[in-house]
Amino acid sequence: MTPDEAARATPEPSRATREPARADPEPARAARDAARAAREAAESVAVRVQELRDISEFRAASRLFNEIWQPDPDNPPVTVELMKAFTHAGNYVSGAYDERDQLVGASVGFLAAPPGQALHSHVTGAAHKGAGFALKLHQRAWALERGIDRITWTYDPLVRRNAYFNLVKLGARPEQYLPEFYGAMADAINAGDESDRALAVWRLSDPRVVRAAAGETITAEVPADAVPGILEKGDRPLLGPCDGRVVLVAVPGDIEGLRTADPAAALDWRHAVRQVLGGLMRDGARVTGFDQGRYIVER
C-alpha cells in the first residue's frame, strides 16, 4: 500500500473532531516544485541525475572532470578522497547518467556561510547537451529540501557561454568580482591567463530563478541610455565611457580559442574587463542581465 492509499484507507474523523485544513507550508511546496522541475529537466534530455555515494562513482566523476579540464595531474579539480569526505559530511556530490548508464556530468558542492543558508558549488562539468542544466536544477532541489536558500559558484566572466548559462538560463547574478582568485592555473582551458572570477549567486526562490527552472529564458532590456563601457572590435576590447547610469560590458566570443591564437589579445580582454566590470562592481554597481555578449551593469 502506498502512503496515499494508506491515507485514503484511514477512517475519516467526525465533523466535530476534524481539524481545519492547513495551508501547505511554503518551503515544503517550493522544495516539491523544485524536485519536479529537476526531474522534468533531466527527462527532457534523457539523463538521470542522482547523488553519488560509492568510490567507483567518485572515480568516474574524477575521470570525467579530468577529460573536460585536462588539468595538471598533480592538481585535479577535486579528488576522489575529497568527494568521499564531502558526502560523508553531508555535502553535495551528484552525477548525470545517459541512457547507456554512462556518467556524462557531475557536480560537487559544499555547505558554506552563513551556516544552514548557503551551498557553494565548487565544480560542475557535463559532456552531454542539457546535462549541466539538469545537474543545476537537481542541486537546487537538493538545497531547498534542506532549507538552503542560495547557491554560489565562481566562473570566468570572460567565457561568454558561461555568462549566458548563469544569467540567462539559470537566473543567477554575479555579485562580486574576484581578481586572480585561483592564482596560476595549469589546465588546458585556463593556462596562460590570469584567473579572475565572478561570484555567481543563485537565490533559489527568487521569481526570476523559479521562471528559469521552469524553462523560461531570462532576458533583460537594454535601456536606450546605456553606454558601451567595452566594445568588441575584432579580437580586441575597445574601452568606452563608463559614466552612464547603465553600462554595457562586452566579452569576447571565444576567449578560450583566443588564449591559444593570440595570448596578448586574451590578456587585453582580461585587463579591460577587470578594469571596467570589476571596477563598476567594486563601486557598488549591479549586474542585472546579459544580452548579445554584453553584461548589463546598473549603478
Q: Give the termini separation.
A: 59 Å
What is the H/E order? Answer: HHEHHEEEHEHEEHEEEHHEE
Radius of gyration: 22 Å
Low-pLDDT windows of residues: 1-23
**Number of DSSP-assigned strands:** 12
Number of helices: 9
The mean pLDDT is 91
What is the SS-derived class? Answer: alpha+beta
Shape: globular
Helix amount, in percent? 25-40%
User: Approximately how much beta-strand content do the residues carry?
Assistant: 25-35%
Record the strand order, biggest sheet.
Answer: 1-2-3-4-5-7-6
Largest sheet: 7 strands, mixed
Q: SSE layout and pairings?
A:
Elements: H1 3-9, H2 26-44, E1 48-51, H3 55-69, H4 80-88, E2 92-97, E3 103-112, E4 118-126, H5 131-145, E5 150-155, H6 160-169, E6 173-178, E7 197-203, H7 207-213, E8 227-233, E9 236-239, E10 246-250, H8 255-261, H9 263-282, E11 286-291, E12 294-298
Parallel strand pairs: 4-5, 8-10
Antiparallel strand pairs: 1-2, 2-3, 3-4, 5-7, 6-7, 8-9, 10-12, 11-12
Helix pairs in contact: 2-5, 3-4, 8-9
